[in-house]
Amino acid sequence: MDYRPSRSFIVLMSAFTVCGIAGAWGWHRLNSVPGHIRSGGDLWEMLTYEPKPVFEAPSAAEIARTRAKAELMKAELVHTHLLLAIDHRTIPAERNAFLRLHRLTGDGQAPHKNVSRELLAAMDEKNRAGWDAAEMRSLLDDHSPLISELREIGELKERSGNGMPDDYTGFVSAREIRNLASVMLHSAKLAALEGNTAQALRDVQCVSAIATHYLQVEAPTLLMTTVTILLDGMVRGWVLDEIVPVLGPEADLRPWRELLAARSYEPQLLSHTLRGEWHYLTGSFLLPVLLRDGPDTPPDVDGLMVFLADQYSESVDRVAKASLAELMDLPGMDPSEHSHLSKESRKLADLLTVGWSKWGNGFVREAVRQRMGLAAMDLIILERSGSGEAGTEVMERLPRNPLDGMPFVYDPATRTLSVSADDADRPLILPK
């Protein structure tokens, strides 16, 4: 007699089969989800998780095509936004300070490649009180090829971002550059201790020249200008705190004063930087990414690029005409200005203009510190000439606060120079 399963049995077994298949699918699904999602314990998130598509690196030919297309689009934007135009200089490689600095510092991935860990440890600010001249001389002698290269770069008068190698992205390593500057400043102090004042001055001038190379390239970025501010602050601090006390009371401080006066932080410098920042973002970062098809590529690339060019062009013009005080509160971007863009483009626009209204703050602070440093040097020179204590009349003749034109305030008892009598924000302390 043939066995014929009942309808209820068939339905029951079908249900078990479906449950088994669903269970197997769920088990596989849960185990294929990344651990950081599983650890959250959200079952629905785990079951609905969709892995992102694997990024396939573009071929050399695709990169070349994208780069060519990006350069063409960038040229069209410059043609319609003339304030963003720059004149590229052509300089032989051996005379191009910017190129030689790039070769020396690389992409910042190996911050200790030029300076040994032993020298870095000896140069650490925590060890400055126990500065050992003999140890420093030995360590610096081990780095003589590096010091010679830096001195050569410091002597160069030309710099250009034109003709940079294919691996150049526009990024500079502030940490690596700071290390190199520290080497030259320690070399300067050692030269001063050994009585070689001329070499000490040249080594500090080298650091100032490197700062100039980053600021006066055709298209400096905000990072490069930040590096310039960092190096100028290091120079000022070392001259006042480390070099002047070593030189002695009879030394001629006028060349050192001229060194601190070599750069004036005017709004036009920041305007020049904003123009360079647009070129960096557009040519080295934004266009190559946007012109490569992908799931996150905005559908209105052209509109986004025109919007950003409009914003940067207006800022270049506005900042160039502004006073230093006005740089402290640059207007931010109104969200309504990019309401016509897609959601993806608006997110990118917000990301690329974050902190827009605060860009000038650090620049203005350095402008004030630079003038304060000049006033400090003038006070030291007057003091060593036997002109007596610096009173109100003397302070009125010295360099003033560029923000409001008011003289700085000097307290002879504590030897501190401040923006105002009630200002305790990083006063300068004059050496004895």
Task: Explain what the structure shows.
It is a single chain. Among the domains are: 15-47; 87-218, no CATH class. It is 59% helix and 2% strand. The chain has helices spanning 7-32, 35-38, 43-47, 60-80, 97-105, 117-123, 133-142, 144-155, 174-193, 197-215, 222-247, 254-260, 267-290, 301-320, 324-327, 343-352, 359-384, 392-397, and strands spanning 409-411, 416-418, 428-429. Strand 1 and strand 2 form a beta hairpin.
> How many DSSP H or I helices?
18
Report the strand count: 3
Low-confidence stretches: none
The overall average pLDDT, rounded, is 84
Rg (CA only) = 30 Å
Shape call: globular
Order of helices and strands: HHHHHHHHHHHHHHHHHHEEE
Question: Quaternary status of these chains?
Answer: single chain
Straight-line N-to-C gap? 117 Å
**What would you call the structural class?**
mainly alpha
The biggest beta sheet reads:
3 strands, antiparallel
Task: Give the proportion of residues in helices.
Answer: 55-70%
| Strand fraction | under 5%
Strand order of the largest sheet: 1-2-3
